[in-house]
Each structure stands twice: as structure tokens, then as C-alpha cells.
Automatic annotation (TrEMBL):
Main localization, broad class: cytoplasm
Pfam families membership: ADH_N, ADH_zinc_N_2
Database matches in PROSITE patterns: QOR_ZETA_CRYSTAL
SMART domains: PKS_ER
Residue stretches making up the Enoyl reductase (ER) domain: 12-333
The protein, known as: Zinc-type alcohol dehydrogenase-like protein
Gene3D superfamilies to which the protein is assigned, alphabetical: Medium-chain alcohol dehydrogenases, catalytic domain, NAD(P)-binding Rossmann-like Domain
Organism annotation: Nitrococcus mobilis Nb-231
Subcellular compartments: Cytoplasm
Length: 338
């Protein structure tokens, strides 16, 4: 099977950062699905794994943790899907990735693809949707059905992949969304997705948020990096919650959190698959629920740019764009050259 892989961990401008390779086609066992991959999405986690380091892979390593495709075969213990089903998923960071013609993935972390979307549009959704959903509804405990209607959420880094879907999930839960964006194009983007207010995260945010009439906000999601930690602590309401997806070495003073009895949550959507948690199947359920929301017109895809075909050259360009830190929405690669 064709695949885009690496043997050395190189800067993205190195032509050998990715290679077009031919690898053996895997076979499904246990609860695995063998998926014929039709489109893949690139995320910051891909660039972090590829980050230059002194390591050489004897067998080419396939990255990629966002895909849509068609079930080719199922393992003997699989019960949720059958061959021919169209699916989408983020996968498991401890296993071979989705940048290949065929991939094995545990059915418990796979959802039925939205019927109203093509493969490229669907591939933009899984990782960021899982991250945003778990951040809001599992970590912060927000009610997705609207029981917390009118509460406020500050989404820091709202123009990126996770933020783009988070805005929509928050609005579906009837929250008041304060989104951050720093460029005209991302400001327009987050407004288009439903943000009620927009502030610039490259300027002091406390003053901007309070100028909107919010002394504190009920929930805060940090979807870029923790340089905004002290701002978040200042703005979170007493007994409110902050969720972050950034693993950081920055100092994180906690006195303000203690004085407010506020809570800090970490979101890592690979945790369930990595640790084989008893509730792994929740990711199947939530991806299938989101697909229904998409088909009902309540959530839209966040794809912004599509490269064709899936090959090493296009993968390098996608990684380069992600590494600029200025990508809007999601970057997808679709189709394999014949």
C-alpha cells in the first residue's frame, strides 16, 4: 500500500522530511477495522511528533491522526461496523497513523461519517471535535443539551482547528461565546462560526473582556498555549473551570486559582485509546452524535484548505502551514495518486 512516512525527524523545509513509500497492507484482528483511507487532516500534534530530533526509524513511520474512509474489513470481535461503512476518526497516537492507503483502528474510537459531507470535509473534524467535546462536556462538565444556557465561555485560540469546532459546540449548548482572534481573517472566521464577541489575544485581554460587560467568565478554554495563563486566572469566575490542551513548561502560579476555588482540567483526546480506558466507546458515541448534528445542519465542517493527492510534497506543505501558527480552520489532504 502507498503511504507517506518518515525515517528521520527533519525540519519541514527538508525535502526528505517526508517520503512516499510502499508498505505491507495490514490485516484486521480483534476489534480493529481495516479502513481504506480517503482523506486525512493535519494537526499541530503531527508537527510536534515530527519535530527534529536525533532519532532514526528503521521501518518508515507513518504519522497522521485524523481520517475518513471506508471500512475494508473488520476483525472477528468487531460488532459496530461492517465492510462498506463510511467512517471518520482520529485514531490512536500509539499506533501507525492515517497517512496510508489502509489503516487499522479500534472500532470503539470510530464514528459513522456524516452522510452530508464528502471525505475531505469529514476528515477535518475528528481530532478537533473529540478535543473540543471532551474539553467542554467531559472536563468542564457543561451540559451539551443547554441546561447551562446563558453561561459564558472564553475560547482562547478560537480561530484554529479546535477553536473552530468549539465555538459551534458551545453555541449548540446555548453558551455566550467570547472568542479570541488576532487577524482580520480569523476574526471574520470566528464570527461566521457563531462567536458572540471577539477579543484580540495579542493585546491585553482582561480589559477587553471587561469592556464587553463581563467581570468574570464562567468557563475558559485555552486552545493555543499557556502564555495566557495569568489572564485566564484573572478572568475565571469563583468556582469556575479552565481547560487546556497545552503541555507547558511555563510557570503556572496557582494562588489565584486557590483563592477562587477554581478548577484546572487537562484535555488529551488520545488518553482513552492510549490507556485503553473502560469508556473508550464514548468516542464512538460522540463522533456518531456529531455526525448527526452535522447532517441536521447544526454543526459545519471546519475545513479551510484541501491538497490533492496525499503525497510527501503536499504533506510537507501542510506541515509548513501548521507550523506558521496562523492556519485558519483545518488543512486536509485527499485521494491517492493512481
Amino acid at each position: 500500500m502507498k503511504a507517506v512516512a518518515l525515517t528521520h525527524y527533519l525540519p519541514v523545509d527538508n525535502p526528505k522530511a517526508f517520503l512516499d513509500v510502499d508498505l505491507p497492507k495490514p490485516a484486521a484482528s480483534g476489534r480493529d477495522l481495516l479502513v481504506s483511507v480517503k482523506a486525512v487532516s493535519v494537526n499541530p500534534i503531527d508537527t510536534k511528533v515530527r519535530r527534529p530530533k536525533d532519532k532514526v526509524e528503521e521501518v518508515p513511520r507513518v504519522l497522521g491522526w485524523d481520517a475518513s474512509g471506508i471500512v475494508e474489513a473488520v476483525g472477528p470481535d468487531a460488532t459496530l461496523f461492517k465492510p462498506g461503512d463510511e467512517v471518520y476518526y482520529a485514531g490512536d497516537i500509539t499506533r501507525s497513523g492515517s497517512d496510508a492507503e489502509f489503516q487499522l483502528v479500534d472500532e470503539r474510537i470510530v464514528g459513522f461519517k456524516p452522510k452530508s459531507l464528502g471525505f475531505a470535509e469529514a476528515a477535518a473534524l475528528p481530532l478537533t471535535t473529540l478535543t473540543a467535546y471532551e474539553a467542554f462536556f467531559d472536563r468542564l462538565g457543561i451540559d451539551r443539551a443547554g441546561a447551562d444556557k446563558g453561561q459564558s465561555v472564553l475560547i482562547i485560540g478560537a480561530g484554529g482547528g479546535v477553536g473552530s469546532i468549539a465555538i459551534q459546540l458551545a453555541k449548540a449548548a446555548e453558551l455566550v461565546v467570547i472568542a479570541t482572534a488576532s487577524r482580520p481573517e480569523t476574526t471574520s472566521w470566528v464570527k461566521e462560526l457563531g462567536a458572540d464577541h471577539v477579543v484580540n489575544h495579542r493585546e491585553p485581554m482582561v480589559e477587553q473582556v471587561r469592556a464587553l460587560g463581563f467581570q468574570h467568565v464562567d468557563h475558559i478554554a485555552i486552545f493555543n498555549d499557556m502564555r495566557h495563563w495569568e489572564t485566564a486566572v484573572e478572568l475565571i469566575r469563583p468556582q469556575g473551570g479552565i481547560v487546556s490542551i497545552d503541555d507547558t513548561d511555563r510557570p503556572m502560579p496557582m494562588e489565584g486559582m486557590k483563592m477562587k476555588a477554581a478548577s484546572l482540567h487537562w484535555e488529551f483526546m488520545f488518553a482513552r485509546a492510549m490507556h485503553q480506558t473502560p469508556d473508550m466507546i464514548e468516542q464512538h458515541k460522540l463522533l456518531t452524535w456529531v455526525a448527526e448534528e452535522v447532517d441536521a445542519g447544526r454543526i459545519r465542517t471546519t475545513v479551510n484548505k484541501v491538497f490533492t493527492p496525499i503525497n510527501a510534497v503536499n504533506m510537507r506543505e501542510a506541515h509548513r502551514l501548521i507550523e506558521t501558527g496562523a492556519a485558519k480552520g483545518k488543512i486536509v489532504l485527499e485521494g491517492w495518486a493512481s
